[in-house]
Amino acid sequence: MSETILVINAGSSSIKFQLFDATDGTLPVRLRGQIEGIGTTPRLVGQDGSLPLPAECGDGVPGALTFLGAWLRERLGGAMPVAVGHRVVHGGPAYDSHVAVDDTVIGTLETYVPLAPLHQPNNLAPIRAIRKLLPDVLQVACFDTAFHRHHSELADRYAIPEALHREGVRRYGFHGLSYEYIAGRLPELAPGIAGGRVVVAHLGSGASMCAIRDGRSVDSTMGFTALDGLPMGTRPGQLDPGVVLYLMDKGMDARAIERLLYHDCGLKGLSGISNDVRDLLASTDPRARLALDCFVYRASLAIGALAAAMGGIDGLVFTAGIGERAPAIRKAIAERARWLGFDLDEEANAANALCITTPDSRVKGCVIPTDEERMIALHTRAILRRHRSA
Q: Alpha-carbon distance 254 to 260, whole Å?
């Protein structure tokens, strides 16, 4: 029986999972799916369709994972994964690489909840639940911040007192698992720019951009938290800190401001309609157009800034939900990037082709689907092998 690695990417109401064959060097996917509706009417959606969770499982994360474990045992002939890898958004100042989970790690990651309140609690919940259900199974925390932790000091410093910097108030950057995957794919898919200066645009409900030179992160649009940078589905992106002071003076407390910034801003706040780009593209409401125009404008500014960080640009890569599947958004960003030497091939762009620029475009443009779960599986397997050889 082959050994497997389970990868979990947990959100507020869903748990996405993939099961990888760890004995095959290519890590093929054996099973994938998600448990949706956690907290309301949970159901497992997999390759065989949708399956409601029995009432006795409850509607929370522990019950969902108990059901998932039984479901996996049935399909694996009683065997269970040899390791579980988790996406954890914030590794904070303590972790600049991915780590095996123990009580100390969980305790430290808990202190970073205020830095990623939308993500960190949901990332930690399945780790705790699995430690109770399967205490002997290796779990690995894979951080979205890790890929950016080797920036220059200039890139990650804020202009604040040294004491605050020593406490960990600095720029971290996020979506690192996605950027690491894209950087690893470039030598095969776009070798001409793999060793050069590339801006990668991870555009989804959460959106950011990263400057990558010779396969390594140089700078990113996100900073101390996942609020900074580009406008997102429900987050504002770059915001004058004075706005927060203004809201406090108006009587809003920290929790109310947190709800506003994480849930009611971005495309949702600008449009008053939706946080989904598909809805906004289909709408004739001028507020929808404003939201999209703002998104494109800020993205184009970020490309210029990240190109400056690298001293130029050789490639622009689009990835994630919007980046991979919204030709109209890519076209609008490309038009604003023409001054950099980006010449869009409109037919290739409309077809979501790998290369979306003309042959004589000075900056090469690509669309490359991301795969954060595969990166988590790779890192989990590496840590599993180290544990076995220790």
A: 10
Contact 16, 8 (CB under 8 A): yes
Alpha carbons 146 and 318: distance in angstroms, whole number: 21
User: What is the strand order of the sheet 4-10 is part of?
Assistant: 49-52, 43-46, 29-36, 15-21, 4-10, 83-88, 138-143, 99-100
303 torsion bin: left (phi>0), alpha (psi -120 to 50), beta (else): alpha
Nearest Cα residue to 117 out of 245, 242, 259, 275: 259
Backbone angles phi, psi at 51, to 5 degrees: -135, 115
Residues pairing with 210 in the sheet: 200, 220
Share of the chain above pLDDT 70, in %: 99
Which pLDDT belongs to residue 371? 94
pLDDT tens across 103-138, in order? Answer: 999 999 999 999 988 889 989 999 998 998 889 999
Give, for 107, the enclosing helix (H) or strand (E). Answer: helix 103-110
Per-residue tokens: 366: 């690509």
Residues in the chain: 390
Instruction: Render pLDDT for 147-196 as a digit per residue (tens, 0 to 9).
Output: 999 999 999 999 999 999 999 999 999 999 999 999 999 999 999 999 99
The CA distances from residue 147 to 51, 111, 350, in Å, are 37, 21, 31
Catalytic residue positions?
144
Structure confidence at residue 1 as a pLDDT band (50, 70, 90)? low
The identity of residue 46, as a single letter, is G
Q: How far apart are CA 246 and CA 268, in angstroms?
A: 21
* Contact of 19 with 4, CB cutoff 8 Å: yes
Closest CA relative to residue 148, chosen from 220, 239, 66: 220
Q: Which amino acid is at 302?
A: A
Contact criterion met (CB below 8 Å) for 189 and 354: yes
Helix, strand, or coil here: 52?
A: strand
pLDDT band for position 64 (cuts 50, 70, 90): confident
pLDDT at 48: 76
Per-residue pLDDT of 313-334, as tens digits, reads 999 999 999 999 999 999 999 9
Query: Residue 37: which residues within 8 A CB-CB, separation 6 or more?
Result: 13, 14, 43, 59
* Residue 8 DSSP one-character state: E
